[in-house]
Amino acid sequence: MSAERGLVRIGTRGSPLALAQAHETKRRLGEAFPELAEDGAVEIVTIMTKGDAILDKALSEIGGKGLFTKELDVSLLNKEVDICVHSMKDVPTWLVPGTVLPCNLPREDTRDAFISEKATNIAGLPDGSLVGSASLRRQAQILAINPTLKVVNFRGNVQTRLRKLNEGVVDATLLALAGLNRMDMSHVATSVLEYEEILPAVAQGAIGIQCREDDDMSLKYIAALTCAQTKTAVDCERAFLSTLDGNCRTPIAGQARVLPDGQLFFEGLIATPDGTKLYRFVPPFLRHAIAISSIRSKSKKTPTRPRVFEKKK
């Protein structure tokens, strides 16, 4: 980055949500550093990724999460941009050598939003309804609630998915509430799903900022934007995902938060794609664990009850 110009070039995907996150980053940089509040001091560079270009296949079929970051990594290493702004849930647990991701902005609401004109929640959908989602995490938890539902591949940006829903392609869909909030679209949510119903994705609702590891100026700028509690929670969730070697072919969910007394609370989930088995737990450092093993019952009205046990000391 050119210190003489004081210019920061932000690399981002081109979806409305990605651009909203890039503009939030630009605003925060301007608020933290007067030289970056001047016209032209911060430039937003839109980069097309393979994940944005291929929409007719599930991510698990075409390479997983790295599809949304590879082109940004290349631009960063080639010094075509100075920082990259990501939705953290799209970032692989490994980073390209020569880059670091030391910054997370304050986290948005991490819950999923349920959107449908036919029901107010998943359990209320008629048997056999079509639910649009490209997420195996959502699919597994949806089918655990009602195995008669049909989950179909549903990709594209938020606006594209809402258009398909309105056209009747599916009966319902789930979207991250964080994205709706960032685009001032929370009004489209029929309801908000609590953790007990659908546990969110690892790092959902968090924005991450990546730069080259030897770019001291960019490191200085983004260090001022970091939310310590968000970064602690996201690092915990990504460590869980990394330990399980999670990818887009495995339904995994995880949420961490720093409690008022300073303790870190974490809850994780791993499941089979068809929702016949779900294991939900918190780790040993809280001295207890919750394991849920859900086997499809004959009726969605009588779901299998979770088994709760105390971890032996």
Task: Give structural attributes.
9 helices; 26% helix; 5-stranded mixed sheet; 313 residues; alpha/beta; disordered N terminus; disordered C terminus; single chain
| Low-pLDDT runs | 1-5, 286-313
Total number of β-strand segments? 15
- Give the overall average pLDDT: 86
Instruction: Find the structural class using helix and strand composition.
Output: alpha/beta
The number of helices is 9
Reading side by side through the largest sheet, how are the strands ordered? 2-1-3-10-4
The separation of the N and C termini measures: 53 Å
Indicate the proportion of strand residues. Answer: 15-25%
Q: Helix content range of the residues, please?
A: 25-40%
The SSE string, one letter per element, is: EHEHHHEEEEHEHEHEEHHEEEEE
Polypeptide structure, described:
Helices cover 26% and strands 23% of the residues. The chain has helices at 16-32, 50-53, 59-62, 70-77, 136-145, 158-166, 177-182, 216-223, 228-243; strands spanning 8-12, 42-46, 83-87, 99-104, 112-116, 130-132, 150-152, 172-176, 191-193, 207-212, 252-258, 264-271, 278-281, 289-291, 307-309. It is globular. It is α/β, with parallel strands linked by helices and 313 residues long. It has a five-stranded mixed sheet with strand order 2-1-3-10-4, with helices on both faces. Strands 7-6-8-5-9 form a five-stranded mixed sheet, sandwiched between helices. It has a three-stranded antiparallel sheet with strand order 11-12-13, with helices on both faces. It is built from nine helices and 15 strands.
